[in-house]
From TrEMBL:
Function: Catalyzes the oxidation of 3-carboxy-2-hydroxy-4-methylpentanoate (3-isopropylmalate) to 3-carboxy-4-methyl-2-oxopentanoate. The product decarboxylates to 4-methyl-2 oxopentanoate.
Species of origin: Gimesia fumaroli
Residue sites binding NAD(+) per the record: 76-89, 281-293
Cellular compartment(s): Cytoplasm
Identification of the protein by name: 3-isopropylmalate dehydrogenase
C-alpha cells in the first residue's frame, strides 16, 4: 500500500514523541511492504511563531491531501496569553472543523501490569474497557459566542446547540461500535436542565430503538457519570456524549489507567483523512529532556493503521509490541512509580525491536 500520512509534531514534547511514532511507522512499512510518505508540517504555537497562524493554509492543504494525520500536541505557556490574537488551540479546533472530524474516539483500557499506577483501587478499575465517542465539531465549542456591555461591566455568552443530524450521526457510529464490542451503549446528557440535551436524548433514543434494538442502552446524566466513572468504570462499554461533556469526562477517564502517557485517540469524519493523537498535552515542563512517554503516540499510529488505512494486522502488531514491552517491565518516568526508567528513544527502540522480533 502507498499512503501519505501527514505529521504535525506541534509543540513541547510533540516533536520527540512524533519522531518515535514515525520510526514505528517506517518499521511497519518495511516489515509489511508498504510505502508511507510522511511530510511534516507546522501547527500550533510553532506555526504562530513562524506564520502568525496556528494552522497555516499550506498545512491544512497537505492534511487534506493525506490518508491520515498524526498529531503530537500543541500549546504551551509561551502562547497562553488570553488576550493574544490567536492561540494554538484555535488551530486544533479549526482542523477538526475543516476536516469534518465529528467523532472523537477515546479508548480507556488499563494495562494489567500497570493497575497499581492508577490512583484508584485495583478492584475498581480491573476489567475496565471503555470506548468514548465524543462529538467534536458541534455543541458549545462551535456555537455563537460574544461579549456585550452590561451595567455590571460586561456580559459574555457561549451557546450550546445541536441539530438532529449532528446527534444522530455520532450516536449511530457509537452504537455500531457497541454492537461490535460489548453490546452496551451509554448516552450522557444533562436533559434534566438543558433543552439541547433533551433533543440529544430524544434523537439518541430514536436512533437506538429504530436501528440498534439489539444493543443494551442506557442514559446517564453527566454529573452522575462523573461519579460512576470512578466508582464503577468496569460497567461501561461504549459511551457517547457531546463536545464539552466529552472533553471533561475523557480527561477524568484518562486518569483510570494511571498515566496519560498511554492513551491514544482518533478523530474521524464521514470521509477524508482521520486525525490521530495522544490524549495528553504538550508537557512543556519536560520538553526537550528526552524523557516523555512515546507510547500514546505509538498507539495512536496503531489506531491510524486500523481506522484510516484498514491495516488491521499491522495495527495489532504495533499494539502487541507495546504490550510486550510493558509486560517486560520497561517504563518511562511517568509510569515508573519511582523505579528505573528509560528515555523516549529507548522506549521507541524497544517497540521497534519487538515489532521486528
Ligand atoms: C482536547 C483538548 C482540546 C479540547 C483543547 C486543547 C482545545 O482539551 O482535545 O480534549 O478542549 O477539545
Ligand atoms: Mg480535553
Amino acid at each position: 500500500m502507498e499512503a501519505r500520512i501527514t505529521l504535525l509534531p506541534g509543540d513541547g514534547i510533540g516533536p520527540e514523541i512524533v519522531a518515535e511514532a514515525k520510526r514505528v511507522l517506517d518499521t511497519v512499512a518495511d516489515k509489511f511492504g508498504h510505502q508511507f510518505e510522511t511530510p511534516s508540517c507546522p501547527m500550533g504555537g510553532n506555526a504562530i511563531d513562524e506564520f502568525g497562524d496556528p494552522l497555516p493554509p499550506q498545512t491544512l492543504e497537505t492534511c487534506k491531501e493525506s490518508q491520515a494525520i498524526l498529531l503530537g500536541a500543541v500549546g504551551g505557556p509561551k502562547w497562553d496569553d488570553p488576550s493574544a490574537k490567536t492561540r494554538p488551540e484555535a488551530g486544533l479546533l479549526k482542523i477538526r472543523k475543516e476536516l469534518g472530524l465529528f467523532a472523537n474516539l477515546r479508548p480507556i483500557k488499563p494495562y494489567s501490569e500497570l493497575l497499581d499506577a492508577s490512583p484508584l483501587k485495583r478492584e475498581i478499575i480491573e476489567g475496565t474497557d471503555i470506548l468514548f465517542f465524543r462529538e467534536l465539531t458541534g455543541g458549545i465549542y462551535f456555537g455563537d459566542s460574544g461579549r456585550m456591555e452590561h451595567p455590571d461591566g460586561e456580559k459574555a455568552f457561549s451557546v450550546m446547540t445541536y441539530t438532529t443530524s449532528e446527534i444522530a450521526r455520532i450516536v449511530r457510529l457509537a452504537a455500531e461500535s457497541a454492537r461490535n464490542r460489548g453490546g452496551k451503549l451509554t448516552s450522557v446528557d444533562k436533559a434534566n436542565v438543558l433543552e439541547v440535551s433533551r433533543l440529544w436524548r430524544q434523537v439518541a433514543e430514536d436512533v437506538v430503538k429504530n436501528e440498534f434494538p439489539d444493543i443494551e442502552y442506557e442514559v446517564v446524566l453527566v454529573d452522575a457519570m462523573a461519579m460512576h466513572l470512578i466508582s464503577r468504570p468496569s460497567e461501561f462499554d461504549v459511551v457517547v456524549t457531546g463536545n464539552m461533556f466529552g472533553d471533561i469526562l475523557t480527561d477524568e477517564g484518562s486518569m483510570l489507567p494511571g498515566s496519560l502517557g498511554l492513551l491514544p485517540s482518533a478523530s474521524l469524519g464521514e470521509s477524508g483523512p482521520g486525525l490521530y493523537e495522544p490524549i495528553h498535552g504538550s508537557a512543556p515542563d519536560i520538553a526537550g529532556k528526552g524523557i516523555a512517554n512515546p507510547l500514546a503516540t505509538i498507539l495512536a499510529t496503531a489506531m491510524l493503521l486500523r481506522h484510516s488505512l484498514s491495516l488491521e494486522s499491522e495495527a495489532a502488531a504495533v499494539e502487541a509490541a507495546v504490550a510486550s514491552v510493558l509486560a517486560a517491565g520497561h517504563r518511562t518516568a511517568d509510569i515508573a512509580a519511582g523505579g528505573d526508567s528509560i528515555s523516549t528513544s529507548e522506549m521507541g527502540n524497544l517497540v521497534i525491536q519487538e515489532l521486528l522480533a
